[in-house]
Amino acid sequence: RRLWIIGLICALLAFTSVKADDDVDIEGTVEEDLGKSRDGSRTDDEAVQREEEAIQLDGLNASQIKEIREKAEKHVFQAEVNRMMKLIINSLYKNKEIFLRELISNASDALDKIRLLSLTNEDALAGNEELIIKIKSDKEKNMLHITDTGIGMTKEELVKNLGTIAKSGTSEFLNKMTEVQDDSQSTSELIGQFGVGFYSAFLVADKVIVTSKHNNGTQHIWESDSNEFSVIEDPRGDTLGRGTTITLVMKEEASDYLELETIKNLVKKYSQFINFPIYVWTSKTETVEEPIEEEEAAEAEKEDATEDEAEVEEEEEDKDKPKTKKVEKTVWDWELMNDIKPIWQRHAKEVEEDEYKAFYKTFSRDTDEPMSHIHFTAEGEVTFKSILFVPASAPRGLFDEYGTKKNDFIKLFVRRVFITDDFHDMMPKYLNFVRGVVDSDDLPLNVSRETLQQHKLLKVIRKKLVRKTLDMIKKIAEEQYNDKFWKEFGTNIKLGVIEDHSNRTRLAKLLRFQTSHSETVLSSLEQYVERMKEKQDKIYFMAGTSRKEAESSPFVEKLLKKGHEVVYLTEPVDEYCIQALPEFEGKRFQNVAKEGVKFDESEKVKEKREALEKEFEPLTTWMKDRALKDKIEKAVLSQRLTNSPCALVASQYGWSGNMERIMKAQAYQTGKDISTNYYASQKKTLEINPKHPLIKEMLKRVNTDAEDQTTSDLAVVLFETSTMRSGYQLTDTKAYGDIIERMLRLSMNVDLSEQVEEELEEEAEEPAEDAEAEDEEEVQADDDAEEESDSTGKDEL
């Protein structure tokens, strides 16, 4: 009997176990704890397998959470990071959606790094060969997860990369942020440019958790609430294989960003041209076949029995098949968001204008639309496909460290695999504003960046890129070119004329300058040549600090009076640029501030000029040999002056006043450069205007008394004044001031020997303390005298 009871109990326990298993199977398509799965829930028959493949959300038990809180290393953010995060949050509160763009861009960068590393290290992808980005929303836990299988971060890198900012760019970023903090669009662009986009996560999150695994370290968890952060080794071990998961604990007001449609729209808006697949854990409704329960099957058989005998045979055949019915179910799976073929791989005619604009914004992280673009395929010695863009405005720090350290804005792909954008010679320095992609099948994949940079085919690619870029710039509409392109990149074109000998002629056609033809519209050299007078064989230009200074110079008086057009060079680089151009369309350039300006003259005019030269010979000789013998090379009659009495002219190979000013202002100028000292010490030619009344009067005085000191002083004053009007600096300002004072004394009939009246010095008053001391001494002396008198009187008595 006892054995029978034991057997009955075992049977009951077995029945209970089977029933429990049945319950589990019935609810097996839904798992309450999403954190235990890798892939989240899926409501189909492959739920368990799918969830094992998905992103692991947290999966931390109570003891592990306690361990993290107790053992995590606490850190304080760098002061600049705190300030920067506050600026970002305050400036972008109306444009919070950019956080997803920045986090996806960072994930893409991490994937680029591991893929590039895998070209030279076969084991780099051993932990996970997939290179993807996954985004998963968890409304119940109010979390958003962005996972990449990129290079990951070690513990040290988590602290360094997420807790500090490179000192070199911190102050500049903060200053720029302060300048544009009222403009959310400009601020969001700055965030991308300075590489601090990670911190935009705090726009929508109260807490940010970063789980990362690097091939050279263990998996760690970084956690922050924007005030401080902590780092600890992940107690779960290696759950990622390699890569990074960023978990955002969303703010209450940012719950919209957990909606699937919102996430999808943002990915398509900002990141559809990212070079790696982006998946979103999303749901869709599907119609599926499910087995019919036994009771439903019995009822179906009764109904079938009433049907015609012709259908009985067919039903007999279907009896062995399982009975099913169609039902609608919500199925969860990863949906690819960016399945568009790389835009540069498509034919230019197949690509819409809006697609180019969207692609540019995605890969350049620029919020503005490009000014121009060119899409082409190059064939020949090397075959490659490329899209190049001219941005709407000059990139930040365009001329910082120009000529030394410079990275191009060109991304190089080899067989659709991103290699690097850290090239220094893909484009010449003066085209450092051009952005674009280059994809070639002819370059090797498995070499280092340094080796690839020296590859001979890159020189061929560079040459073609420059030609295509100049073609693109040339096709920019004239109105847009003058108003936008030249304002942003005019200096680059001028530098190109100086540096790029092989493309100098092409670049010269892109130059624009102010001229005397128009006060508002810039002119090209082609337009200038078209407007030249019939017998004019030179292009006249005048350099100065501004248009006003250039057009009021004594050197342009005669030219403007005769109707000749003058080019005004108002930028420091302009004169260098023109010096690098020997000619343009057969016309040589003439600096009107130097020797060599000549006008076509008739025989009668020539005779008159020669007569004047003979008449004024005593004055020119006197100036050269006596009054200004240490200051000028020679004095001659001028053909270019009309209203001014004289001007100081440089030799054909000397420095103009503008060039001398620029050279002396160079930061590295020490005064020890032999060539610089040579040019600076060269004497100039003094050109005098024989029709000016002052010059005529000086001629009379020299003919009357060449030894007169006043006449000599007048000559020095004229020379020093013309020095300043010609753009040069005075070498002895004190001597010039003394002469001006002497001339003023003579004009006001003040005796030259009369001195400044000296101020009478008043007797200094005694200090109060000394006076009191003296009073006390006097009182004491009086007392002593009285005592002495009394004693004397007594003695006498």
UniProtKB/TrEMBL annotation:
Residues 1-20 form the signal peptide. SMART domains: HATPase_c. Residues 289-324, 753-797 are annotated as: Disordered. ATP binds at residues 102, 106, 148, 153, 161, 167-169, 193-198, 244, 449. InterPro entries: HATPase_C_sf, HATPase_dom, Heat_shock_protein_90_CS, HSP90_C, Hsp90_fam, Hsp90_N, Ribosomal_Su5_D2-typ_SF. One of its GO terms (cellular component) is sarcoplasmic reticulum lumen. Keywords: ATP-binding, Chaperone, Endoplasmic reticulum, Glycoprotein, Nucleotide-binding, Sarcoplasmic reticulum, Signal. Belongs to the heat shock protein 90 family. NCBIfam families: PRK05218.1. This is Endoplasmin. It comes from Triplophysa rosa (Cave loach).
